[in-house]
Automatic annotation (TrEMBL):
<comment type="similarity">
    <text>Belongs to the SMC family.</text>
</comment>
<protein>
    <recommendedName>
        <fullName>Chromosome partition protein Smc</fullName>
    </recommendedName>
</protein>
<comment type="function">
    <text>Required for chromosome condensation and partitioning.</text>
</comment>
<feature type="binding site">
    <location>
        <begin position="32"/>
        <end position="39"/>
    </location>
    <ligand>
        <name>ATP</name>
    </ligand>
</feature>
<comment type="subunit">
    <text>Homodimer.</text>
</comment>
Length: 183
């Protein structure tokens, strides 16, 4: 499975609809300080269901909406879509039949979130479930941002176990057990 492109609109500094393509297995994003490189990574985390504003370098969850700049008024909503190539059927079960999987999240100023899977409205849980155990997800080790390596080195054994469980693919079973126990 490969990320094909990210489509952003109204997200942080990406006020106008922008498509960032990833045409090969390795892509680099370069640009001057403050041009929005890290905002793209924040967008990936956000669309996969990140629910902590701090992890997105903001104070509140609506801080991801473009809040205006010189000559541009703030906008009312932010939207990010990730398009994955699933032609190798990495995603099993009901998703295996889709060559392309698109997930989208939208938030408005009144902090209402909406999630879409291949264009159809879904729950946040539907999105997080897809990626559980794949190594992808808002907090997964697939995204190594500034400070993560030192966090790993300094983490307590029980925190380190969360990373290992995700890598080993057992976190989804633990999550399901938790859900069953809470019913
Ligand atoms: P560096 O090389 O320093 O790491 P970068 O390319 O990673 O820089 P980012 O941190 O992605 O840069 O982008 C920071 C820019 O995004 C700042 O100019 C900031 O004003 C802008 N920005 C962040 N949130 C918003 C928002 N909600 N609305 C408008 N602009 C925003
Ligand atoms: Mg940066």
């Amino acid at each position: 499975m490969r990320l094909k492109c990210i489509k952003l609109a109204g997200f942080k500094s990406f006020v106008d609809p922008t498509t960032v393509p990833f045409p090969t297995n390795m892509s680099g994003i370069v640009g001057p300080n403050g041009c929005g490189k890290s905002n793209i990574i924040d967008a990936v985390r956000w669309v996969m269901g990140e629910s902590s504003a701090k992890n997105l370098r903001g104070e509140s969850m609506t801080d991801v909406i473009f809040n205006g700049s010189k000559g541009r008024k703030p906008v009312g909503q932010a939207s990010v879509e990730l398009v994955f190539d699933n032609s190798d059927s990495t995603l099993k079960g009901e998703y295996a039949k889709y060559n392309e999987i698109s997930i989208r999240r939208k938030v408005t100023r009144d902090a209402k979130n909406a999630y879409y899977l291949n264009g159809v409205k879904c729950r946040r849980k539907d999105i997080t479930d897809i990626f559980l155990g794949t190594g992808l997800g808002p907090r997964s080790y697939a995204i190594i941002s500034q400070g993560i390596v030192s966090n790993l080195i300094e983490s307590k054994p029980e925190e380190l176990r969360v990373f290992i469980e995700e890598a080993a693919g057992i976190s989804k079973y633990k999550e399901r057990r938790r859900e069953t126990e809470n019913r």
